[in-house]
Amino acid sequence: MPSERPVSDSRLAIDASDPAFDEAIWQPQYPSRFFEVLRTFGVGVRHQRIVDLGTGIGRLAIQFSRQGSHVIGVDRSANLIRKARQQSVACELDAAFHIASPHETGLPARRFDAAICGERAGDLDGHRLRREIDRLLKPGGLIVDHGLRWLPQQDPVAAAVEDLLLRFHCDWARAGWDGHTPLLPEADQDDFALVATVVFDEPIPFTRESWRGHVRTREGIRDQLTDEQLRLLDAEHETVLQSLTGETFTVLHRVFARLLRPLDVE
């Protein structure tokens, strides 16, 4: 049985160089269809200037760079930016990566055609993030607010891992997510014009090892558990998968994006 979450935030020291806990190895890429659809709306095209706020390990920034866009990825984590830079160099791309808060990037104003905002960037209704995006975008620039999430109500593997997370007392706000993605909340209608919404489901392929790696390195999981608890969770996860899946399988994910234009960017 998992132990109760400790009140303190102390952690045992997992070696940051241990590949088992390296997010850059285990986090899946968005499916190619995501980038193809965005291109039909003019995002990710050649010579376009894109800022990827909360870039993490640079999954989206690197793909946009492959497509010929000029991309700067921003993240407050020096470790993730280092890995993103390494990946960009390994792919012989010129994507740039910058250590800073998405709320205060220090980048030049009115420079970018599009701002990419995932969960690491924070909520768009936050005043500081909205103000920084307004400052960075050229007139007529677009915001792409996006996500890639598993569907526990439709996929048994996703349901099983959520049950495991809850048994380990993870505060998992997405537990039982039904896949609903609102078009444009009423509170945002005075600030943004909705240009387009992209929503589709994609079965993402995994092996048992890669799915376990994805779960144990995911933000919102690894930062809630002590290292001892994380290893216990991973061991129990392996046992669950042995009874539920073959060596290779897919997990159904919902891919979504809202393309928005700030109403007060002129």
TrEMBL record:
Q: Which InterPro entries match?
A: Methyltransf_25 (IPR041698), Methyltransf_Superfamily (IPR050508), SAM-dependent_MTases_sf (IPR029063)
Pfam families in the cross-refs: Methyltransf_25 (PF13649)
What residues form the membrane-spanning segments? none
Q: Which residues form the Methyltransferase domain?
A: 50-141
Q: Which SUPFAM superfamilies match?
A: S-adenosyl-L-methionine-dependent methyltransferases
Q: Which CDD domains does the record associate with it?
A: AdoMet_MTases (cd02440)
One molecular function GO term is:
methyltransferase activity
- Top-level taxon in the UniProt lineage: Bacteria
Please report the name of this protein according to its UniProt entry.
Methyltransferase domain-containing protein
Q: Which organism is it from?
A: Maioricimonas rarisocia
